[in-house]
Amino acid sequence: MTFASEGTVAALILLLVAAASPCARGQSGAESRPDSETRAGLTSVPGIRVGHYGYPGAATGCTVILADGGAIGAVDVRGGAPGTVETDLLNPVNMVQEVNAVVLAGGSAYGLAAREGVMRHLEERGEGFAVGSGMVVPIVPGAVIFDLRVATARPGPECGRRAAAAATDGVVAEGSVGAGAGATVGKLRGMESAMKGGVGTAAIALEGGLVVAALVVVNAVGDIVDPATGRVVAGVRGAGDRLVDARRILREEAVEPSPGRNTTIGVVATNARLTQAEATKVAQMAQDGIARAIVPSHTPGDGDALFALATGGLAAERDSDGFSVSQVGALAAEAVADAILRAVRKARGLPGLPAVRDLPSPSPPFR
Known about the structure:
This protein is of the alpha+beta class. The chain has helices at 6-19, 22-27, 114-124, 157-165, 246-252, 276-293, 325-346; strands at 37-38, 48-54, 61-77, 84-85, 98-105, 129-132, 135-137, 142-144, 184-185, 195-196, 198-205, 211-219, 223-225, 232-234, 263-272, 294-295, 305-314. Helix 3 (114-124) packs across helix 4 (157-165) and helix 6 crosses helix 7 (325-346).
């Protein structure tokens, strides 16, 4: 019997450590992430809580984002078929500046009813816009996805109430939960070639204290593409469940997705102190994350919408490292793209709708 020398053992240990490193995992298909990213996702922003509720076996539900004490709110809508509520209220020229919660739901326009349950939950706790005589009106904008082809129920007030009651500042559940329970992607050739979408969240925290995070419900008509590699992660399936690549389809076919049946919606949040106009710019810039990770995006058949919440815990002081609005918006786009990737990687398949984890092998590079 022979024994390895000390040098050989040391070399083997180094190889094992390298194989377990984030970079090595990224090469094998799992995500690699910068040190600045935090695993708690949207709740990395102090004062933000997230709750999900899903109807068991019904492939639909809702997700509620609570802003304790209120947060400056804004929105940017890019899709041609949005399903939203209280978005006009978030225009910087209007009176109300702060929101108490955002509700994201399945059920198409029917799912907007989930908002009523969130409002009741907040009213019972005295949270909302004060209107005198001890009364409040909770400010709860929201957006919905179209999941009616998959879901067997429609989110209502009870869904919103339960999601709000379950909201926590802990690690956010991802994948086929809440509003993402019935989400699908890759529908350029119809549902028979689609895959499972879901909910994803990501956050970036800098040494100076700035935190920028996103939570996204991914129900896109397009493919999900990893911006770092250009590879399709989830999308239109061909023979043997191989990914076809929407970029090739768009060069070969005159496709026109069914209107109003696809949507990517979400929330970006930051502890930066922003005005409502600045938060609106952050929401606009955050849409770049959708464009980077979804092909195609912002189509006439999508209802893409992103809300922005600024809790205001971190001020940008002239004589400190602080932050800039451009920086916050750029980081928001990065967080959105990361959250989109996590949504499909964490999803679990449904009958006829496989998830990323069910695919036979990674897709080849586009070029």
